[in-house]
Amino acid sequence: MKIEDFKAGNYLQQYKYKCFIPSKINHPFSWDDPELSVLLSEANKKLEELNSFSSSVPDIENVLPLFIAKESLASSKIEGIKTEFKELLLSESEIAPDKKEDWLEVKNYIEAINICLEEMNEIPLSTRILNLAHQIIFSGARGEKKSPGEFRKSQNWVGGATINEAIYIPPVHDEISNLIGDLENFLHNDYLEIPDLIKIAIAHYQFITIHPYVDGNGRIGRLLITLYLVSFGLLSKPTLYLSAFFEKRKIPYYNHLMLVRKNDDLMQWIKFFLEAVIESALHGIKTFQSIIESQKEIDAEVIPAIVENENDVFVFRKYFKLFE
Asked: Does the pLDDT value for residue 308 go beyond 50?
């Protein structure tokens, strides 16, 4: 199928509303648009450059937690969950009561990334991995009512206080297993010969459109991008995160996804996604360059005694300003 000819899906009448049933995606995709080819080439080039830089940083294993923390903060912020970077170094008892639930979800997101990356050494990227991430993120008081680690068994919607005011109504829950199965097969179908960045752009759109969980779909959908890039060898380390780009362009991000469903315009979404890869990779490269240049420069400021781990103190002192 030509990306230009993509048909996003159809609406299914329910009792008092219509939900959107996306078309399945486990089939070949091609395109004629030369602009997409140029963007894809540039995105691949920047990704390779970022990967190369990550291999040249002596402190890479110590620096990775800061990349992961930054992604967790940005991805959560898109969903209205706000925690400061410096607060991640505080213990739970030191967080103000009104900030504790947000803080816990961000900390859980960091843990989810780390555990899922570790699990993928043994099992492939799959529904099992995504459910694990969801379970970890929502392990806490606020998450108890959000069916942690399980697909929803009821209708949800995006925007609006009621379903009648919704901006978008995802597929009825009976369709989820079938659609997620198709998505999983798409990710692992080597016969399609679709460039990886095109594939994960389509997969991210499809996951967000399916909206399989009661809550947390955006965060899991963005985590899927990182897990895919590492799992399929595009990155040796998890150093590319797009959430900061999406958070700065939150309205265009949502609009581009919605335009696929409304106008079948998959092309504009993929181009937007590739622009996100290019800019995010460039930012990562500049960060690595700054880290390399500052290897011998250690901030002399006294770190509060609340930081217990000496390694965290060392990394925090050297690189905090690069990630703040």
From this structure: no
